[in-house]
Amino acid sequence: MALSTDTPEAVGLNGQRLKRLECWLEQQVESHRLQGATALISRRGKNAFFHATGDLRRDSVVRLFSMTKPVTTVAAMMLYEQGHFQLDDPLALYLPEFIHTPVWNGEKVLSSRATPDDVLNHVEAQQSPITIHHLLTHTSGLSYGFMNATPVDAYYRHHKLDTVGVNESLSSMVARLAKAPLLAQPGTAWNYSVSTDVLGRLIEIWSGQSLADFMELNILQPLGMSDTGFYVKPAQQSRFTHLYGPAAGGELGAVNGHGHDSWQARVEETHRARQVLQPPVVLEPADASLFNNAPTLESGGGGLVGTIDDFSRFCQMLLNGGELQGSRLLSYKTVEYMRQNHLPDNNDMAAMGQAVWSETSYQGVGFGLGFAVVVDPVSARMITSKGEHHWGGAASTFFWIDPEEDMVVVFVTQLYPSSAYPLRRELRSLVYQALES
Question: Which has more pLDDT, 419 or 301?
Fold first, then answer.
């Protein structure tokens, strides 16, 4: 279901300058960066631009991966408004297994005979407990195995602490996760993690429903997101897309500037990205995808599939302050609170930990509840608005919400990993250059 439409000019966009965005989208396919892409711009409550190219259409069903996280966060905040928890509640109040979760002390595991479990010999006790707020802001100390940066990540990989395609319940995975060491003391560092999957388990406890059922009844149905869910329904199969990867290069978790990559590597990446490349390769065919079957574990951190129009409606609800076309999910005060920077001392993510994706160092970008928040566009080296909030998924999908400009932008493709090309930075510049009033 799409929002109502209007001309670009009617909502303060320049239609001629938007042709630059159309050309850019076409170039992504012609240069073999992408197999397909779609972009949608909504301003002042109206869809004013849409373009599809390659193998993607407007009604294509795609893997949203981590764009699931803001949806799960909204679900949690709906339960917060119902009085089920407080933000400073200890996680162990609801999941007692986290009372004694150890914390890695930062020492390297140096022995050539070391196993991933040896990190448990280099731990200390929690100085303060993990709170619900820590989960919402990715400052819990939890991690992801794909980071490939620390002995904690190696422990996650060894014990298969993954969340998509795992043949176990969410409660079982979370219980095993409580035995893994935290990467840092709770509240001291920003680290992208399975925090939102733990939050999904809490939603089940607070609501008495499965995560899928709670989302369906309280978010997806009220917002008319009929093509969104935790798996591809039989009627959607013909619209589900392949997942691609670049023919060469690309590693999930690669960082730029403030991580292990040098500025020389950035130059080489940019040079490569401007060439005509080999066509992307299929990593997961649509008809052989894990998403074709209802999952045993419903991942609040990365389990949803959906369409560009569905996700645009979700974003418009947030831009509207928690309401869309008569369905109110959240109070406008709750949404205002969510889009503030919640990192200590108004820090940006670069000061609180290591950035994840190569197209940004996360200078000038803080974190709210469920998404990143721009606190200083100049430091971020992005033409955007202070207070703009955004997030993306591992298949290079991306969205941002700009309250100052009354605008939502959603970009959909299916290229894994999201660090392959600086698509998101390029897209921003092409959108903002088209603003006229």
Answer: 301
